[in-house]
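agent> fetching stored inputs for the flavin-adenine dinucleotide docking request
agent> found them:
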Amino acid sequence: MMRYDFNDLPVAGDKKSSRSRFLYCANSGFLRHAVTVQQGGHGDDFLALMSVHQQLGQYCLDSGLILSLNAHLWGAIFPLINYGSDAQQQRWLPRLLSGDMIAGHAITEPLAGSDINALTTTATLTKKGFVLNGHKRFITNAPIADMLMIYAQVEHKLTAFLVKRDDANVVFTDDYSVDGCALATMGEVVLDNCLIPLGRQVGRIGGGGMMIQSALELERAFIFAGLSGIMEWQLKTVISYSRERQIKGQFLGQNQAISHKIAEMKLRLDTINLWLRECATLKIQKKRISLVSAETKLYASEAFLQSSLDAVHIMGAAGLLETHKMNTLIQDAVASRLFSGSSEIQKNIISALLGTGEGYKGKQKK
Ligand SMILES: Cc1cc2nc3c(=O)[nH]c(=O)nc-3n(C[C@H](O)[C@H](O)[C@H](O)COP(=O)(O)OP(=O)(O)OC[C@H]3O[C@@H](n4cnc5c(N)ncnc54)[C@H](O)[C@@H]3O)c2cc1C
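agent> prediction call returned; pasting tokens
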């Protein structure tokens, strides 16, 4: 497995540093895993990708950087690999793999979050190209992105388009962030008669729904590789704390209420890693991951939140210090229950794949 030396990773701070931290990883070749050599990748597999993401998480402890890299990978690079034309791959992949261009995907709108069927952004075909109108929000990387994969309706058929920051009549804003994964940049996209050339349509007209599912399946499966690296640090830190802090002459960890919490944190982390391996193995075998990626995301995000609450509790008020990493991980974990589809949406996917749930209309009469 490839090992990275992240020692020169720029120090985290403002949005400028978010960009330079992203670029540092990209320049090291971090975006080329699980991509074939012919397409400009390292030619390794999803287990290798999982391993390097874990390494990065353990080193950087920055859920925002992990979110930013994953939005670029699953939101733009892999949709182009899976659905882009040869010309699109030749034109965009080299720049996306090297980090020469930063990207992400823009699905969510003010009136359409969990329900992608409610998306209202439109793309109208004209002689000169497509004209896009609409409003996207909560878009990871928008403030630093050169290009975004934007999903819009072409006569009610959801379709993907590549929109560049310097296209006419589009603004990628930089005016707010949510509290979780705060070091990832976030913004809105406002499209007001934005004209793009025909060659920027990715996949077929009406293929956007399938592309979103495919992108989110990968994002759900692998974003927790980096986050599990952070959880490894979280566990090690509370173990050390419990072995050093004394209360009434006893080490904290000797208290069974504390040591059982630590045992549960270990079990959650190991279970996440088993789920990740399962996703990676299925990808290597070129099998579907719809079910396992929803299970991984549901389990891992809930486990991340519970372990983050436990870690702060074990450390007492020290863990709640505003600047303490343990405290920020709680917010990161809450965000992880929402991005790439909330926990409720993962349960809907799992139950639908089992032939039950909200979409079930009863047995069809023969
Ligand atoms: C850190 C972060 C990064 C993000 N990055 C991106 C990005 O790069 N690109 C992008 O397009 N979007 C992004 N998002 C947006 C994210 O995809 C949405 O927040 C998510 O899909 C939920 O949509 P919503 O916030 O509008 O909530 P809503 O859809 O309004 O849901 C509100 C609540 O209702 C529940 N709910 C909704 N529908 C159902 C249902 N059918 N059954 C049961 N419960 C339901 C939800 O689980 C949730 O608890 C990001 C979000 C966060 C927090």
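agent> quick read of the result: The chain has a mean pLDDT of 96.
agent> awaiting further instructions
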